[in-house]
Amino acid sequence: MYLFKNVRALRLFLEPFRTKGRAIGFAPTMGALHEGHLSLIRQSLESTQCTVCSIFVNPTQFNQAEDLEKYPRNPAKDLQMLYEVGCHAVFMPPVDEVYPPGLDSTAPVDFGPLAEGLEGRFRPGHFQGVAQVMNRLLGIVEPQRLFMGQKDYQQCLIVQHMIRTLGLPVEFVMGPTVREPNGLAMSSRNARLSPEQHSRAAIIFQSLQDAAHWMGQGLGPAQVREKALQQLSIPGFRPEYFELVDGQSLQPLAHFDNEGMIVACAAVWAGDVRLIDNHILRRGA
Ligand code: AMP
């Protein structure tokens, strides 16, 4: 496994793969790796000839300085995990390598309503930051396939939209959410939960699964939402949103009677740790 800290060295390493027509797979991360990240690396290893993982805590996507400061970092363990899984190259750049002075890396894309609800509503500017870093990283790595997790469903749609709008020559692959044994979606932020919070946070996936059940019983979106918010309001936890949205447009649903894809999305504060999760209730026609 090779570790790169600057763009030029990474591009020199990747050049022979490009000229020989060997597919490059890319999984961008912010480190503090877990099985969810590794599952993306494994998917890339299975379907490409060279797998690149980036570890970069992107400052432009954090809307609160404290969140950025408290973001877990564990580079030595990350490298060990990536080595063991068989990743070929790791890109771990300093901030000024990704954002050199003078370079305008903002993604010239209007996300419209896709970025307005859910995370976009509670984290202003977040998706502009995500698009900026993804645009820059895709420009550096130029992968044939990009692997990202369903755990961040809205992020997947934003990046897919950017790829389409800018006509980037990369195939987007969305990997399934990897969960803890109690159902909690794996997340780097889980490291900040106390053992008790960790065990109680199982309620988040439970509520998403129950939403599917309530929908099956004939309840409408407003009733399902109400029940889920109630279920999530346990001591020490505070739901920020629970929404039932169209899986393509991310617009909240007024009823369930169309044929489209339905996704339930939730954000919940466990103490001062913000957790998000989602569940596809119906894949659609
Ligand atoms: P992050 O390091 O949180 O920015 O995540 C890097 C990538 O890993 C993103 O594409 C995430 O959606 C994905 N990811 C994070 N958690 C999980 C999970 N539990 N299962 C699958 N993919 C995940």
Structural notes for this entry:
The chain contains 11 helices and 9 strands. With 285 residues, the protein is of the alpha/beta class. It has 2 domains: 174 residues, 3-Layer(aba) Sandwich (Rossmann fold); 92 residues, Pantoate--beta-alanine Ligase, Chain: A,domain 2. The mean pLDDT is 97. Adenosine monophosphate (AMP) binds next to α2 and β5.
Task: Describe the secondary structure blueprint for this structure.
Layout: E1 2-4, H1 7-19, E2 24-29, H2 35-47, E3 50-55, H3 65-70, H4 75-85, E4 89-91, H5 95-98, H6 118-122, H7 126-141, E5 145-149, H8 153-166, E6 171-175, H9 195-200, H10 202-216, H11 221-232, E7 237-246, E8 262-270, E9 273-282
The structure holds adenosine monophosphate.
Write out key terms for the chains shown.
alpha/beta, Rossmann fold, six-stranded parallel beta sheet, 9 strands, 20% strand, globular, binds adenosine monophosphate
Strand content: 15-25%
Order of helices and strands: EHEHEHHEHHHEHEHHHEEE
* CATH architect. name of the largest domain: 3-Layer(aba) Sandwich
State the CATH class of the largest domain.
Answer: Alpha Beta
Separation of the first and last Cα atoms: 43 Å
Bound molecules: adenosine monophosphate
The poorly predicted ranges are: none
Using only C-alpha atoms, the radius of gyration works out to: 19 Å
Describe the structure concisely for a colleague.
This protein is α/β, with parallel strands linked by helices and 285 residues long. Helices cover 40% and strands 20% of the residues.
